[in-house]
Specification:
It contains seven helices and 16 strands. With about 400 residues, it is an alpha+beta fold. The chain folds into two domains: about 170 residues, Chemotaxis protein chec (3-Layer(aba) Sandwich), CATH 3.40.1550.10; about 140 residues, no CATH class. Strands 7, 8, 9, 10, 11, 12, 13, 14, 15 and 16 form a ten-stranded mixed sheet that branches. A six-stranded antiparallel sheet has the order 1-3-4-6-5-2. Helix 1 packs across helix 3. The radius of gyration is 34 Å and the shape is elongated. The relative contact order is 0.11.
Length: about 400
């Protein structure tokens, strides 16, 4: 019998999900090998069957999927159901009968095809029946929720990557005695957590700076974040941002007369008007869960390790300079120790070098170069690889007044 299951409505499960969590291990170990053995016995090891799901609600397992259903009686009161999705039947029939001329349609299944699937379900039934116990005489009358559904994924053993179908076996709970995982006691004491440490990222501040100022950053310069506050920073834990209150270390205070740069005599150009956002981040620091709880309670936390920690200046996620934390008046700043991405000077090419390059042809295989490029795009997926941050390239922002 072919049936189409529609799961548009939300049907709440009357059985506790926590109970299924504790029983999952028993169901997997008890029935996985049985169903695989039945498949190997009937189809001579042509399919791989993996247990992937346990549910009391059949509707959550089949979403707008047609399936072939076989009902087999265990005794006068209990039945066992087998549901094979259209995809699972297609995989089985193609392996057994060969590749069809047209796409398989479960609503047009032939008598021969139906007999093959029904016989396979009977083979599974014979293997599973041995695991059915006797009904509990104290059990109340059966209800609509005393069944459990085991979901298996079926794949062609010669093509396990391409296609997969579902095999769902429905068993009566009245004949099962599932074992639950029991706790062996507390694995952690509550006193262990406050002293446990995690890595967090501390953001000193963000601010928009003229691009020409960023391009001219040099060692020993001091970059002041005017919108920073010496009593506040931001703590980043994964995607969560927390405002942390600090006791500022006034030993970091430096006079305001720091490397003031005189105005350039260059004529005004577009560099003077372009601004980009630059942020300052500390290297990852450790903090205990106890300190984290205090932060969430709004208490002041003394993160002494920050004051000896390296600060990195980033533009669009790319590091451009690093330095140490300082305080200028009531604002945080960074004294530059290293410029990570200085603009590379362009060397002029002599006529002799140009002539030499023209005399030495460079063989280029266009097809190979193109294939290599395409392969690289596929591997990287157009996304940045975490941990391999590219240096900031100022040449990306070069503008030519005459080209406007």
């Amino acid at each position: 019998m072919a049936v189409n299951i529609n799961t548009g409505a939300n049907i709440e499960d009357s059985i506790s999900t926590k109970e299924l969590f504790r029983e999952y291990d028993w169901y997997e170990k008890t029935f996985s090998n049985i169903v695989q053995f039945a498949s190997d016995d009937f189809f001579t090891k042509n399919f791989k069957v993996d247990f992937i799901g346990l549910s009391k609600n059949i509707n959550c397992l089949l979403k707008d999927e047609s399936c072939f259903v076989t009902k087999i009686k265990i005794n006068e009161e209990y039945d066992m159901f087998f549901r094979l999705t259209e995809k699972a039947i297609d995989i089985i029939l193609e392996k057994v009968l060969g590749k069809p001329k047209s796409r398989f349609n479960i609503n047009k299944i032939s008598d021969l095809e139906a007999k093959i699937i029904t016989a396979f379900n009977s083979c599974m039934f014979d293997a599973l029946k041995a695991k059915m116990g006797e009904p509990d005489p104290k059990q109340l009358k059966r209800t609509n929720f005393d069944m459990v559904n085991l979901t298996f994924v079926l794949k062609d053993i010669d093509n396990v990557i391409k296609d997969a179908g579902k095999v769902i076996v429905t068993l009566p709970l009245g004949l099962l005695r599932p074992h639950q995982i029991t706790s062996g006691g507390e694995k952690f004491a509550n006193t262990d957590f406050p002293n446990s440490e995690i890595f967090v990222k501390v953001i000193m501040g963000k601010m928009r700076f003229p691009l020409i100022d960023i391009q001219n950053i040099e060692q020993d310069d001091v970059v002041v974040f005017e919108n920073s506050n010496i009593e506040h920073m931001t703590l980043a834990i994964q995607d969560e941002l927390l405002d942390i209150h600090l006791n500022p270390n006034m030993d970091l205070l430096i006079p305001e007369e720091f490397n003031e740069r005189g105005e350039d005599n260059m004529s005004a150009n577009l560099w003077d008007n372009i601004e980009v956002e630059m942020n300052a981040e500390f290297d990852a620091v450790k903090i205990t869960l106890g300190e984290l709880k205090n932060i969430e309670d709004g208490l002041v936390v003394d993160l002494t390790s920050l004051y000896n920690n390296n600060v990195t200046l980033k533009v669009e996620g790319n590091p451009i300079a690093s330095g140490t934390l300082v305080i200028v008046n009531d604002r945080y700043g960074v004294k530059i120790n290293q410029v990570i991405a200085p603009p590379a000077p362009k060397s002029e090419q002599t006529e002799e070098e140009a002539d030499t390059q023209e005399q030495i042809p460079v063989p280029v295989n266009t097809n190979i170069a193109q294939n290599d490029t395409e392969e690289q795009i596929v591997q990287n997926g157009g996304a940045e690889v975490e941990g391999d941050e590219e240096d900031f390239d100022y040449s990306d922002f070069d503008l030519d007044d005459e080209g406007l």
